[in-house]
Design a protein that fits this description.
Elements: E1 2-10, E2 13-19, E3 24-29, H1 35-45, E4 61-69, H2 74-82, E5 90-98, E6 103-107, E7 110-112, H3 114-121, E8 125-128, H4 139-150, H5 152-178, H6 181-201, H7 207-219, H8 221-236, H9 243-255, H10 262-291, H11 296-315, H12 320-338, H13 340-386, E9 393-398, H14 404-409, E10 419-424, E11 432-433, H15 440-454, E12 462-466, H16 474-488, E13 492-496, H17 500-504, E14 508-517, E15 520-527, H18 532-540, H19 548-566
Parallel strand pairs: 3-13, 3-14, 8-12, 12-13
Antiparallel strand pairs: 1-2, 1-4, 4-5, 5-6, 6-7, 9-10, 10-11, 14-15
Helix pairs in contact: 4-13, 5-13, 6-12, 7-11, 8-10, 9-10, 13-15, 15-16, 18-19
Length: 567
């Protein structure tokens, strides 16, 4: 429910804080006072298109903030969770526009896109008027609204259809994957070649790294051999200046003076250990040298093997591990296809059986929906008659499906039905989609009729009617007032009106006025403690002392009695 609307720098409004309440909230005022500005402000904050002309003259930005409470329907909670927005006790949405054309939207303080904002507010608020923000005009919603009126039977049937459809499409997908006999033979030929190619290659994980290491050694063989030769000579060569010979000579010299210093013996011991370690290193260097043998054929074999490994990995996944995974998957699929004849036969039998069951469920669901549609058509036609549109015809149009094949082609988890609400607002005129209705008064009254019927199932908590009284008066005005009152017992209703009958029915009545202040024209909105003078003004203009005030009191008394009887 809309609790507050804070408006800044919108048209004639400099700054305005509005508090709205449950029930029927009526907004009235003189023509040109700025009633449309309130609706424009609400349209702006819920994400409708707006241009810079909305910004108050002499300022460079405009902002509107809307506060909702008791807003947590399942749809709203799911939407906020999907947007990553934390659920709080109240919901605050805001939108700012600058002269430079920049837009800033926030939901509970978190920056949001305009589409995110609009997606949320469509679940919170419906505005029926010149700037439509109406879920009922979206054809995609018509089937859901029809189902909402159908009750638990249709809901259970929809669950059954959903499960059967999932099973049916699963069988179709599996048959498509397996293909016919010719398809399987072609797939088997391809898979057999792929499996054989990978298997015969005997490529293993890590082989490419090993080959690259070998190639690196071969390409640097001359350098490796030279280094090993030279280091071997330096350590244990035949020359007298090799490391081992010099170490041996050092030990001999130290032995000649060992008796003169106790520390000499320790040095001799360390040199002997070093000599043994150097001897071991020298032997290993020589062994490495003897093991190295290079020929041109080895280099060619490595290059050839690398080419095989790289070609295969390029074809089958980009790496050896990916290729080996593909190999296992291909082997498994090949085995399945080679033995798929029996499975396909079983699936075909299941398909026939499931198709028959699904068709029966789809037709039963359509039949039940059509029963509800007939009831809805009758109720809407009656409502429109009450509202002064006695010549109107309303129809729930089902797209005709001629045969079982078409039914299956157009079926889904929600059934096979494609429906649209059509209306002929005048006797003798053809039925047209709702969006083709030209008259704003006709549109508003149709929406009121539909809302009066659907209010028990529509989860949108706040309904706004912008001058729904267009083109009506007298008894019809009383009917409009009573129907809006009916809706407002389960939903919050905001209505801009010129009708005294509707104003008299208000639970909360706001007066919109325009006046000069500090050399500027401003619009203000006041919650009236006593609305009788305003009701009287709506009845008889500015001079209402004679007959209008008593008439206003009669209207108020009638409204009070109507509300009491509703309880």
């Amino acid at each position: 429910m809309l609790s507050e609307l804070n408006i800044k720098n919108i048209a004639l409004i400099e700054s305005l804080n509005l508090k709205f309440y449950e029930g029927l909230n009526i907004l009235s005022g003189e023509t040109g006072a700025g009633k449309s500005i309130i609706i424009d402000s609400l349209n702006f904050v819920i994400g409708e298109r707006a241009d810079k002309t909305l910004i108050r003259y002499g300022t460079d930005f405009a902002t509107v903030e809307a506060v909702f409470y008791d807003y947590e329907t399942n749809d709203v909670t799911t939407y906020l969770n999907n947007c990553g927005i934390e659920i709080e006790e109240i919901l605050v949405i805001s939108r700012k526009m600058t002269l430079e054309g920049k837009n800033e939207c926030r939901i509970n303080g978190k920056t949001a896109t305009l589409s995110m904002l609009k997606g949320l507010t469509e679940l919170l608020c419906d505005i029926h008027g010149q700037h439509e923000h109406q879920s009922l005009l979206r054809v995609s919603q018509h089937l859901n609204l029809l189902d909402s009126l159908s009750g638990l039977l249709v809901e259970s049937m929809k669950i059954e259809v959903k499960n059967q459809y999932k099973n049916y499409t699963g069988i179709i997908s599996e048959l498509k994957r397996l293909g016919d006999s010719a398809d399987r033979d072609r797939k088997c030929d391809i898979l057999s070649y792929q499996v054989e190619e990978i298997e015969n290659s005997k490529v293993y994980d890590g082989e490419e790294d090993e080959l690259l290491e070998k190639r690196k050694r071969i390409r640097n063989m001359e350098k490796i051999l030279s280094a090993l030769d030279e280091s071997g000579q330096m350590l244990d060569g035949y020359e007298s200046d090799s490391a081992l010979n010099k170490t041996k000579l050092a030990v001999s010299r130290l032995n000649s003076i060992v008796s003169f210093d106790d520390k000499i013996e320790g040095l001799i011991s360390r040199l002997e250990s070093a000599r043994i370690e150097m001897k071991d290193i020298a032997d290993e260097v020589n062994s490495l040298r003897e093991q190295l043998n290079f020929d041109a054929r080895s280099a060619e074999e490595i290059e050839e093997r690398l080419e095989i490994v790289r070609n295969l990995t390029r074809k089958y996944g980009g790496s050896v591990s990916s290729m080996l995974k593909f190999f296992e998957s291909a082997k498994s699929e090949l085995s399945e296809l080679q033995n798929a004849g029996e499975k396909v036969e079983q699936l075909q039998k299941q398909k026939v059986k499931t198709e028959k069951t699904l068709l029966s469920s789809l037709k039963s669901l359509t039949l039940e929906r059509k029963k509800t549609a007939i009831e809805l058509e009758s109720k809407i036609t009656k409502e429109l008659g009450d509202l002064g549109m006695a010549g109107s015809t309303f129809k729930v149009d089902f797209k005709l499906l001629d045969n079982d094949k078409e039914i299956l082609e157009h079926s889904g988890a929600n059934g096979c039905d494609n429906v649209e609400f059509l209306i002929s607002p005048n006797l003798g005129e053809p039925l047209k989609p709702l969006v083709k209705i030209i008259s704003g008064g006709e549109m508003s009254r149709f929406m009121l009729a539909l809302k009066n019927i659907l209010s028990v199932v529509d989860n949108i908590q706040t309904l706004v009617f912008d001058e729904i009284d267009t083109g009506i008066s007298g008894h019809i005005a009383e009917v409009v007032a009573s129907k809006l009152c009916n809706i407002s017992r389960s939903r919050q209703v905001l209505a801009v009106t010129h009708l005294p009958q509707l104003a008299a029915m208000a639970d909360n009545h706001y007066l919109i006025e325009k006046h000069a202040e500090n050399g500027k024209t401003v619009t203000t909105l006041t919650l009236l403690e006593d609305s009788l003078p305003e009701i009287a003004r709506l009845i008889g203009g500015s001079d209402y002392s004679g007959f209008a005030l008593p008439h206003a009191k009669e209207m108020r008394e009638w409204s009070v009695k109507y509300k009491v009887n509703l309880k």
